[in-house]
Amino acid sequence: MVRTLFLASVLVLTGCSTAYYAAMEKVGVHKRDILVDRVEEARDAQVESQQEFKDALDELSQLIKFHGGDLQSRYEALSAQYEDSKKAAAEVSSRISKVETVAFDLFAEWETELSQYQSKQLRADSKKKLLETKRQFDALLRVMRRAESKMPPVLRVLNDNVLYLKHNLNAKAVGAIQGEFGMLQQDVNSLVSEMNKAIAESNQFIATINQQ
What we know:
By secondary structure, the chain is mostly helical. It has one domain. The chain is 88% helix and 0% strand. Helix 3 runs antiparallel to helix 4, helix 4 packs antiparallel against helix 5 and helix 5 packs antiparallel against helix 7. It is elongated, with a radius of gyration of 22 Å. 27% of the residues are buried.
Protein backbone atom coordinates (compact mmCIF):
# COMPACT_ATOMS: atom_id res chain seq x y z
CA MET A 1 0.00 0.00 0.00
CA VAL A 2 2.87 2.36 0.82
CA ARG A 3 4.35 1.66 -2.60
CA THR A 4 1.05 2.45 -4.28
CA LEU A 5 0.67 5.72 -2.38
CA PHE A 6 4.24 6.67 -3.27
CA LEU A 7 3.48 6.03 -6.93
CA ALA A 8 0.38 8.18 -6.65
CA SER A 9 2.45 11.00 -5.17
CA VAL A 10 4.90 10.81 -8.06
CA LEU A 11 2.08 10.91 -10.56
CA VAL A 12 0.69 14.05 -8.91
CA LEU A 13 4.04 15.76 -9.25
CA THR A 14 4.21 14.90 -12.94
CA GLY A 15 0.76 16.34 -13.48
CA CYS A 16 -0.78 13.11 -14.80
CA SER A 17 -4.26 13.53 -13.33
CA THR A 18 -5.85 10.51 -15.01
CA ALA A 19 -3.14 8.15 -13.82
CA TYR A 20 -3.26 9.77 -10.38
CA TYR A 21 -6.99 9.20 -10.04
CA ALA A 22 -6.60 5.59 -11.20
CA ALA A 23 -3.82 4.95 -8.70
CA MET A 24 -5.83 6.47 -5.87
CA GLU A 25 -8.95 4.46 -6.75
CA LYS A 26 -6.89 1.28 -6.42
CA VAL A 27 -6.42 2.10 -2.74
CA GLY A 28 -10.07 3.08 -2.27
CA VAL A 29 -9.72 6.85 -2.62
CA HIS A 30 -12.12 8.32 -5.18
CA LYS A 31 -12.52 11.79 -6.68
CA ARG A 32 -15.16 12.68 -4.10
CA ASP A 33 -12.70 11.86 -1.31
CA ILE A 34 -9.95 13.84 -3.03
CA LEU A 35 -12.28 16.82 -3.40
CA VAL A 36 -13.08 16.78 0.31
CA ASP A 37 -9.38 16.56 1.15
CA ARG A 38 -8.53 19.47 -1.12
CA VAL A 39 -11.33 21.65 0.24
CA GLU A 40 -9.98 20.94 3.72
CA GLU A 41 -6.46 21.86 2.58
CA ALA A 42 -7.69 25.10 1.00
CA ARG A 43 -9.61 25.93 4.17
CA ASP A 44 -6.54 25.30 6.33
CA ALA A 45 -4.40 27.42 4.01
CA GLN A 46 -6.87 30.28 4.42
CA VAL A 47 -6.74 29.96 8.21
CA GLU A 48 -2.95 30.17 8.10
CA SER A 49 -3.02 33.05 5.63
CA GLN A 50 -5.40 35.00 7.86
CA GLN A 51 -2.91 34.78 10.70
CA GLU A 52 0.02 35.80 8.52
CA PHE A 53 -1.78 38.95 7.37
CA LYS A 54 -2.80 39.78 10.92
CA ASP A 55 0.81 39.33 12.05
CA ALA A 56 2.06 41.57 9.24
CA LEU A 57 -0.40 44.27 10.25
CA ASP A 58 0.71 43.90 13.86
CA GLU A 59 4.38 44.22 12.86
CA LEU A 60 3.63 47.41 10.95
CA SER A 61 1.65 48.72 13.90
CA GLN A 62 4.54 48.04 16.23
CA LEU A 63 6.96 49.76 13.87
CA ILE A 64 5.02 52.99 13.52
CA LYS A 65 4.65 53.15 17.31
CA PHE A 66 8.35 52.51 17.82
CA HIS A 67 10.32 55.37 19.33
CA GLY A 68 13.93 55.69 20.39
CA GLY A 69 14.97 52.15 19.52
CA ASP A 70 16.46 50.02 16.78
CA LEU A 71 14.27 50.65 13.74
CA GLN A 72 16.35 48.23 11.68
CA SER A 73 15.27 45.24 13.74
CA ARG A 74 11.61 46.27 13.51
CA TYR A 75 11.94 46.75 9.76
CA GLU A 76 13.50 43.30 9.35
CA ALA A 77 10.64 41.73 11.31
CA LEU A 78 8.11 43.53 9.10
CA SER A 79 9.93 42.49 5.92
CA ALA A 80 10.06 38.87 7.03
CA GLN A 81 6.36 38.89 7.90
CA TYR A 82 5.52 40.39 4.51
CA GLU A 83 7.37 37.52 2.82
CA ASP A 84 5.47 35.01 4.96
CA SER A 85 2.19 36.67 4.00
CA LYS A 86 3.10 36.52 0.32
CA LYS A 87 3.92 32.82 0.55
CA ALA A 88 0.71 32.11 2.44
CA ALA A 89 -1.32 33.97 -0.20
CA ALA A 90 0.32 31.95 -2.98
CA GLU A 91 -0.50 28.75 -1.12
CA VAL A 92 -4.15 29.76 -0.83
CA SER A 93 -4.37 30.43 -4.57
CA SER A 94 -2.70 27.11 -5.36
CA ARG A 95 -5.02 25.18 -3.07
CA ILE A 96 -8.13 26.80 -4.54
CA SER A 97 -7.01 25.93 -8.06
CA LYS A 98 -6.47 22.31 -7.02
CA VAL A 99 -9.97 22.24 -5.55
CA GLU A 100 -11.40 23.58 -8.80
CA THR A 101 -9.52 21.01 -10.89
CA VAL A 102 -10.69 17.93 -9.02
CA ALA A 103 -14.25 19.27 -8.81
CA PHE A 104 -14.33 19.73 -12.58
CA ASP A 105 -13.07 16.17 -13.08
CA LEU A 106 -15.54 14.74 -10.56
CA PHE A 107 -18.53 16.47 -12.11
CA ALA A 108 -17.48 15.49 -15.64
CA GLU A 109 -17.21 11.84 -14.60
CA TRP A 110 -20.52 11.99 -12.74
CA GLU A 111 -22.27 13.52 -15.75
CA THR A 112 -20.85 10.87 -18.10
CA GLU A 113 -21.86 8.00 -15.87
CA LEU A 114 -25.50 9.09 -15.75
CA SER A 115 -26.00 7.46 -19.13
CA GLN A 116 -24.96 4.09 -17.71
CA TYR A 117 -28.05 3.76 -15.48
CA GLN A 118 -30.75 1.33 -16.52
CA SER A 119 -33.11 2.60 -13.83
CA LYS A 120 -34.70 5.93 -14.73
CA GLN A 121 -35.49 6.60 -11.09
CA LEU A 122 -31.90 6.08 -9.96
CA ARG A 123 -30.61 8.14 -12.87
CA ALA A 124 -32.96 10.99 -12.01
CA ASP A 125 -31.98 10.85 -8.35
CA SER A 126 -28.27 10.84 -9.19
CA LYS A 127 -28.69 13.75 -11.60
CA LYS A 128 -30.56 15.72 -8.94
CA LYS A 129 -27.71 15.14 -6.48
CA LEU A 130 -25.16 16.12 -9.11
CA LEU A 131 -26.91 19.42 -9.83
CA GLU A 132 -27.26 20.20 -6.13
CA THR A 133 -23.61 19.37 -5.44
CA LYS A 134 -22.51 21.53 -8.37
CA ARG A 135 -24.67 24.38 -7.10
CA GLN A 136 -23.13 24.12 -3.64
CA PHE A 137 -19.63 23.91 -5.07
CA ASP A 138 -20.15 26.92 -7.33
CA ALA A 139 -21.22 28.91 -4.26
CA LEU A 140 -18.14 27.73 -2.37
CA LEU A 141 -15.80 28.58 -5.24
CA ARG A 142 -17.26 32.08 -5.58
CA VAL A 143 -16.66 32.77 -1.88
CA MET A 144 -13.14 31.34 -2.06
CA ARG A 145 -12.23 33.40 -5.11
CA ARG A 146 -13.72 36.54 -3.57
CA ALA A 147 -11.56 36.09 -0.48
CA GLU A 148 -8.57 35.37 -2.69
CA SER A 149 -9.12 38.62 -4.59
CA LYS A 150 -8.71 40.57 -1.34
CA MET A 151 -5.12 39.42 -0.88
CA PRO A 152 -3.23 41.14 -3.75
CA PRO A 153 -4.30 44.71 -2.77
CA VAL A 154 -3.14 44.13 0.80
CA LEU A 155 0.15 42.65 -0.38
CA ARG A 156 0.73 45.63 -2.67
CA VAL A 157 0.30 48.09 0.19
CA LEU A 158 2.53 46.03 2.46
CA ASN A 159 5.16 45.82 -0.24
CA ASP A 160 5.04 49.59 -0.79
CA ASN A 161 5.59 50.18 2.91
CA VAL A 162 8.43 47.68 3.14
CA LEU A 163 10.16 49.15 0.09
CA TYR A 164 9.74 52.71 1.33
CA LEU A 165 11.15 51.89 4.74
CA LYS A 166 14.01 49.93 3.20
CA HIS A 167 15.40 53.09 1.59
CA ASN A 168 14.17 55.63 4.15
CA LEU A 169 14.54 53.99 7.53
CA ASN A 170 14.12 56.93 9.89
CA ALA A 171 11.49 58.55 12.09
CA LYS A 172 10.31 60.81 9.26
CA ALA A 173 9.75 57.83 6.97
CA VAL A 174 7.84 55.99 9.68
CA GLY A 175 5.63 59.04 10.08
CA ALA A 176 5.00 59.12 6.34
CA ILE A 177 3.46 55.66 6.30
CA GLN A 178 1.26 56.20 9.35
CA GLY A 179 -1.42 57.79 7.20
CA GLU A 180 -1.90 54.57 5.23
CA PHE A 181 -2.12 52.32 8.26
CA GLY A 182 -5.81 52.93 8.92
CA MET A 183 -6.77 52.04 5.36
CA LEU A 184 -4.55 48.95 5.43
CA GLN A 185 -6.17 47.87 8.68
CA GLN A 186 -9.59 48.12 7.05
CA ASP A 187 -8.37 46.08 4.07
CA VAL A 188 -6.95 43.35 6.32
CA ASN A 189 -10.16 43.23 8.35
CA SER A 190 -12.16 42.91 5.14
CA LEU A 191 -9.85 40.13 3.96
CA VAL A 192 -10.20 38.26 7.24
CA SER A 193 -13.98 38.63 7.09
CA GLU A 194 -14.17 37.22 3.55
CA MET A 195 -11.88 34.34 4.49
CA ASN A 196 -14.07 33.54 7.48
CA LYS A 197 -17.01 33.26 5.09
CA ALA A 198 -15.00 30.96 2.82
CA ILE A 199 -13.91 28.83 5.77
CA ALA A 200 -17.50 28.50 6.99
CA GLU A 201 -18.68 27.67 3.46
CA SER A 202 -15.92 25.06 3.18
CA ASN A 203 -17.02 23.39 6.40
CA GLN A 204 -20.61 23.34 5.22
CA PHE A 205 -19.66 21.85 1.85
CA ILE A 206 -17.53 19.15 3.50
CA ALA A 207 -20.35 18.24 5.86
CA THR A 208 -22.84 18.03 2.98
CA ILE A 209 -20.56 15.84 0.84
CA ASN A 210 -19.86 13.50 3.75
CA GLN A 211 -23.59 13.03 4.34
CA GLN A 212 -24.31 11.94 0.78
